Amino acid sequence: MKLKDKVAIVTGGSRDIGRAVSLKLAKEGAKVVVNYFHNKAEADETLRLIAEAGGTAIAIQGDMTKGDDVQRLFDECAKAFGDNLDILVNVAGGIIGRKKITEQDEEWYDTLMNVNLKSVWFCTRAAVPHMKSGASIVNFSSLAARDGGGAGASLYATSKAAVSCFTRSMAKELGPDGIRVNAICPGTIATSFHDRFNTPENRERAKAGYPLRREGTAEECADLVAYLASDESSYLTGTNIDINGGCFFS
Predict the structure, then answer these.
(1) I need a labelling partner for 182 at 20 to 30 A (CA). Which of 90, 98, 160, 163 fits?
(2) Per-residue pLDDT tens for 57-77?
(3) Is 156 a catalytic residue?
């Protein structure tokens, strides 16, 4: 197990990609703190799957756009597993909905920027004092950060582009301390995200243009996260790695 006895926090870790990441890290030996926003049943199911696999985890509720909730998450992690944090995976985020620029207001702007960027900033700021040389932060950006996103997703794409830039900035700032910071940029992954915010027709049309002719899976994203969290990627930092079936945009 390449993450044996490591301590990890996964924000948005109770479902879809977050669940797959939490389960993968636990299977690799990490003690995992699964953060969830509001659905305790999903978090409990994630804990059940981890326990069934022989892993160790706890679940902590919290809104990662709220500073007090973020601090409580890190405090609870320290109480359960000690003050040292080895891995932070910032999965929490979302598209929320689709709106044209003429339909967007200031509240909409703040909502998208907070859930996708402010959450990463809050959690990174809280994590660093608990991290030592060899620790790893993995952020979730998006293919949308490179291509501008689909119709009505301009602020989602913009916020994810900011995550990609923040990843590079933190890699420079934290690298001298031996802390690595990377991001992964998923394309179309078969999760409830696309079930809610995409159409079957769009998904089939998109798949036809991918070299691999299929959507990705949450487990494939989790495998990449585990690699970036481990010593196997010890000379990788500041990267934004595409995981999109070969779909490239200029």
Answers:
(1) 98
(2) 999 999 999 999 999 999 999
(3) yes
